[in-house]
Amino acid sequence: MSSIKDVARRANVSISTVSHVVNGTRFVSESARKQVEEAIRNLGYVPSAVARSLKSNSTKTLGMLIPNCTNPYFAEIVRSVEDHCFGAGYTLILCNTDDEPHRQSVYLQVLSEKRIDGLIIISTGNDSELLALVQGLTIPAVLLDREISHVQCDLVETAHMQGAMLATEHLLALGHTRIACIAGPEDLNSSAQRIQGWRNALAKAGAAADADQLVWHSDFTSQGGCDTMKQVLQSPLKPTAVFVCNDLMGIGALSAAHEAGVRIPQDMSLVGFDDIELAHFTSPALTTVVQPKHRMGVMAVDMLLERIQSKREQSRQVLLQPTLVVRASSGPAPRTPQKVA
User: Fold this and answer.
1) What is the DSSP letter of 335?
2) CB 10 within 8 A of CB 39
3) What is the reported pLDDT for 336?
4) How far is it, in rounded angstroms, from Cα 318 to Cα 297?
5) What average pLDDT is seen over the chain?
6) CA 63, CA 141: separation in Å to the nearest integer?
7) In a 3-state reduction of DSSP, which class is residue 339?
8) Which residues 6+ apart lie within 8 Å of 157 measured at CB?
9) In the chain, which residue ranges form alpha helices assigned H by DSSP?
10) Which residues on neighbouring strands pair with residue 242, listed in sequence order?
11) What per-residue confidence (pLDDT) applies to 340?
């Protein structure tokens, strides 16, 4: 592999001249520039990104941590982040933590040592080790979708509580009074906020008497939603509607209901959260809370670039408002108790 010295020798110029041509850091005469460019072509010289980053103190590279690369919700956010990074002249290094706190800690440490310019974090859990690592970062960072308690950091997320209230109020308006909740992991702030929104809507309607017996926790996966929905269907308190705290679990819940012979929405209504693309194509199509995923990704990148370019020093938190899209999985409460196989 050719070096910058080889290029300088072939072009009969100094190493510093080659460097100025490659990096555009100083005026070089047209004849010298042509000689250097011809030598680069002939030798197949590729400038060292590491060397350039040491001089400029920038790698034009951002890092991103996501909890689960198989979840379409995160995939859709990553797409908007990557597109916006590319448009801004940055590349993106993506790490999947697989919902494992230890793996998350390792990746945080590795990325912080890779000379990336900034980091976008969708966290796994909310443990003390994560808190210490994020607080100890020496590069700009933005939290996306999930806040971390006691961390003063840029944050972009949807108003999870308001979204859950939208879903629950929709079901209440359809005449449902016994509304179950299939929630996510207990150690996630976003999950806790969605549960609180569900509780608030029930309390406001005077329908919260059995709330403690109508909440189940799962793991934000289709299999988790399916398994948990089976528990809901076997509960002594038979709900007429279920608010499922993400669409993947909602898809699993639809499968469990179908397997049990429960008709959606005739026997039981179902509302999800996220509005992933697949929610349009379930049978029946899933009523769900819409998170503005594209806007979230773009804003996270913009906030990170503001920090990198030293345009802002104080932390900023952006709370985006969700909406509800009504599809075929929600309908009026049944007049008689639904049959559960």
Assistant:
1) S
2) yes
3) 63
4) 12
5) 90
6) 9
7) coil
8) 143, 144, 145, 146, 147, 190, 296, 318, 319, 320
9) 4-11, 15-23, 30-43, 49-56, 72-87, 101-112, 128-135, 160-173, 189-204, 222-233, 247-260, 293-308
10) 180, 270
11) 47
